[in-house]
Design a protein that fits this description.
Elements: E1 2-9, H1 10-22, E2 28-33, E3 40-48, H2 53-63, E4 66-73, E5 84-91, E6 93-99
Antiparallel strand pairs: 1-3, 1-6, 2-3, 4-5
Length: 106
């Protein structure tokens, strides 16, 4: 048995949850915040059998694509009323696959 931890952007979370449910995978959804962009993320906890890991990873790859965004940025030497956009890459997913010694549904 494996536990998949997937951190995804909030924008992708609902579509990913729907795709997982459509493929008969359950997930627990937790709100989280990223450190760099300080934007909302969602962390999904997905328990699966060993042979299902690749299928879940395929679903995550299909739904959570990387994309570029322009974020306002104000350099220290320029007044904050003038925002210079900064291009950052966002989206995608950060995924951990962990071994599960025991699983109990009580």
């Amino acid at each position: 048995m494996k536990l998949i931890l997937a951190v995804v952007e909030d924008d992708d979370a609902t579509v990913l949850m729907d795709a997982l449910i459509d493929n008969n995978f359950g997930a627990t959804k937790l709100a989280s915040t990223g450190g760099f962009l300080l934007r909302g993320n969602t962390t999904l906890l997905i328990g699966v059998h060993d042979q299902q890991v690749d299928e879940v990873l395929r679903i995550i790859r299909r739904v959570c694509v990387r994309r570029k965004k322009l974020l306002p940025q104000a350099p220290a030497e320029i007044p904050t009323s003038v925002a210079m956009p900064m291009e950052v890459e966002s989206g995608g997913a950060t995924v951990w696959v962990l071994d599960v010694d025991q699983f109990h549904k009580i």
